[in-house]
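Thread amino acids onto this structure.
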């Protein structure tokens, strides 16, 4: 004899049996008591939350021989027929296979006929979003003004795909995901009644993996019970990491920049036969939920999740910087777009992982993230100690002081201008260190160097080109040392006007005004003396040119 599945055996038969949907059932019961029954209802929500079961209970409540009553007896012939699915007056239609114009026309014609036995003729249209646009148009007039004996109940997991003209003619009820605690408690009751030995930890794991769907949880319990005792090990082996746990683990790897862990997770999904297109969409949904949790104080219905999941989202969102979260969301949206263009799914997902966990691999992304991180840190500083922050010195004060000196002979001007930088540097050293400087380290400066170069380009394209191959050798919070390839480049960096431009760019990005120095990179193909030339800021530029290009000068 074929056994009946648990989810069918324990299908709710009264409004009180429906788990976690009191906001729906109590409203419907009140309407039945007050004789305020609508002619069309729309039940929306994720799978396994009780939409179709509630529609059947509504049909029994309206047609019970003791009714209409908010508490059907489930004992009369009408209630039993509806429960068994044999009632001629309660018609269930699967719109996925009967959503065309011809099907709707047939339904519309049959709706005109009076009920055979029951008080009301109830049409339950499951997966209502699958009805075609032409079918809804043919259905519109009947839904708007049905016969007095007809009531429509539309059930759907995607209410946004139902025509607005239909939505406006229905009483809409949104079914929420059932909490993991309620599902685990329900599974414990079912296990006790069925004589199933189940560990509490296993039931909790099943409840979390169901993601708010009671039917999925009962199906999993039924599958595990076939092997005997339901243990945590068996549940973990069957379920692996539940979808929710997987998303949180994967997002943690993205937030911490752990490329290896994220890529290993992708490889595990491939080995288990998961569709990476579906996985990418789930990642986008999860990141969207994190973004809404972080930016919207009360997201409400914007996030379709249980209370436990909302709490986990809030905790995880705190570990994501705003810039990184937006960048991650964009990276996986791009990966989905690439996969639609027939790109290899695994490669697209792995590239998205690398772009998120290693932003320095993407210059534009690295620049944007570094700049936004800097702004966020400075905001924290201003909030924590606004009174202690000294006003930053204007970055171009040093060159103005140098210009105000008396003019020198042309051949000595460069030498004097170099020495004039030193007093300005000393003045900057006497200033109290900025609170922001304590938050800026060498790694941050190097990561944000493309942003600094972009600020330099706005002031001097020539200097920007000069620094194209330059890097940051050191930064101690007060002095930034720029590493260049040639001695002459070091001289140009140390010129007051150029040093001021660099200092101004650093101030624009980090809010600090450092002293700018230059060193020549130690290269095997260059003489070691070039380092000494740059270190000695009093050297005559003419000597530098001679050492670099020879001493045969041509004068006009």
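Threaded sequence (556 positions):
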């Amino acid at each position: 004899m074929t056994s009946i599945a648990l989810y069918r055996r324990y299908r709710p038969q009264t409004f009180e049996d429906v788990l976690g949907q009191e906001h729906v059932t109590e409203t419907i019961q009140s309407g039945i008591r007050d004789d305020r029954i609508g002619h069309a209802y729309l039940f929306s929500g994720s799978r396994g939350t009780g939409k179709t079961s509630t529609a059947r209970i509504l049909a029994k409540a309206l047609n019970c021989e003791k009714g209409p009553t908010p508490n059907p007896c489930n004992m009369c012939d009408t209630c039993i027929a509806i429960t068994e699915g044999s009632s001629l007056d309660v018609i269930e239609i699967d719109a996925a296979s009967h959503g065309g114009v011809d099907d709707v026309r047939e339904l519309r014609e049959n709706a005109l006929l009076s009920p055979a036995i029951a008080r009301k003729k109830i049409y339950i249209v499951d997966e209502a979003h699958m009805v075609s646009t032409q079918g809804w148009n043919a259905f519109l007039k009947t839904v708007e003004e049905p016969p007095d004996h007809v009531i429509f109940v539309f059930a759907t997991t995607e209410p946004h795909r139902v025509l607005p003209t239909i939505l406006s003619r229905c009483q809409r009820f949104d079914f929420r995901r059932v909490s993991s605690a309620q599902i685990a408690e329900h599974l414990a009751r079912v296990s006790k009644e069925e004589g199933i030995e189940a560990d509490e930890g296993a039931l909790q794991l099943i409840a979390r993996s169901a993601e708010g769907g009671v039917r999925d949880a009962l199906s999993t319990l039924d599958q595990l019970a076939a092997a005997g005792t339901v243990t945590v090990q068996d549940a973990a082996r069957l379920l692996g990491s539940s979808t929710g746990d997987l998303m949180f683990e994967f997002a943690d790897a993205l937030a911490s920049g752990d490329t290896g862990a994220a890529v290993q997770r992708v490889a595990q999904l491939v080995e288990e036969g998961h569709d990476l297109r579906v996985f990418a969409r789930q990642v986008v949904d999860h990141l969207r939920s994190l973004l809404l949790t972080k930016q919207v104080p009360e997201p409400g219905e914007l996030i379709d999740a249980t209370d436990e999941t909302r709490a986990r989202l809030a905790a995880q969102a705190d570990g994501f910087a705003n810039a990184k979260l937006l960048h991650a969301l964009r990276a996986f949206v791009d990966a989905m777009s690439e996969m639609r263009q027939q790109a290899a799914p695994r490669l697209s997902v792995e590239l998205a992982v690398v772009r998120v966990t290693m932003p320095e691999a993407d210059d534009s992304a690295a620049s944007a993230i570094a700049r936004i991180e800097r702004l966020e840190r400075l905001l924290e500083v201003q909030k924590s100690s606004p009174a202690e922050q000294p006003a930053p010195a204007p970055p171009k004060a040093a060159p103005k002081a140098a210009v105000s000196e008396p003019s020198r002979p042309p051949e000595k001007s460069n030498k004097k201008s170099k020495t004039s930088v030193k007093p300005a540097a000393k003045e900057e050293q006497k200033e109290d260190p900025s609170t922001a400087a304590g938050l800026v380290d060498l790694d941050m400066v190097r990561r944000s160097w493309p942003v600094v170069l972009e600020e330099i380009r706005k002031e001097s394209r020539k200097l920007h080109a000069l620094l194209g191959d330059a890097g940051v050798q050191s930064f101690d919070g007060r002095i930034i040392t720029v590493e260049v390839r040639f001695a002459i480049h070091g001289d140009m960096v140390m010129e007051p006007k150029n040093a001021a431009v660099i200092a101004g760019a650093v101030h624009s990005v980090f809010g600090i005004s450092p002293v700018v120095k230059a060193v020549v990179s130690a290269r095997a193909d260059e003489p070691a003396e070039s380092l000494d030339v740059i270190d000695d800021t009093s050297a005559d530029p003419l000597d530098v040119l001679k050492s670099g290009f020879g001493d045969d000068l041509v004068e006009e």
